[in-house]
Amino acid sequence: MEASPRRDLPGLLADPATWEYPDDVTWIGAVTLVETEAGKKISRMSPEEMAARDQSPPSRAS
Predict the structure, then answer these.
(1) 29/45 Cα distance (integer angstroms)
(2) Is the pLDDT of residue 52 over 80?
């Protein structure tokens, strides 16, 4: 299985054809998350908020 970038997740998760279901009736469903270098930085900001933050000039402490 190939890793999917964050920006692609909403579309992948919304597409029923993407999901694979095992024959085991005890399976309850799961999403596997794998830590990557980019994923080590956790943020609650949306991608748009992060882009705006990254394009803003750095603030200067007084």
Answers:
(1) 27
(2) yes
User: N- to C-terminal Cα distance for the chain?
Assistant: 50
Count the Cβ atoms, other than its own, within 10 Å of residue 11: 10
Residues 5-29 have pLDDT tens digits of 888 888 888 887 777 777 777 777 6
Maximal C-alpha separation, the chain:
62
- Three-class DSSP labels, the chain: CCCCCHHHHHHHHHCHHHCCCCCCCCCCCCCCCCCCCHHHCCCCCCHHHHHHHHHCCCCCCC
Q: Which of 40, 53, 50 is nearest to 7 (CA)?
A: 50
Residue 5 is encoded by which pair of tokens?
């970038």
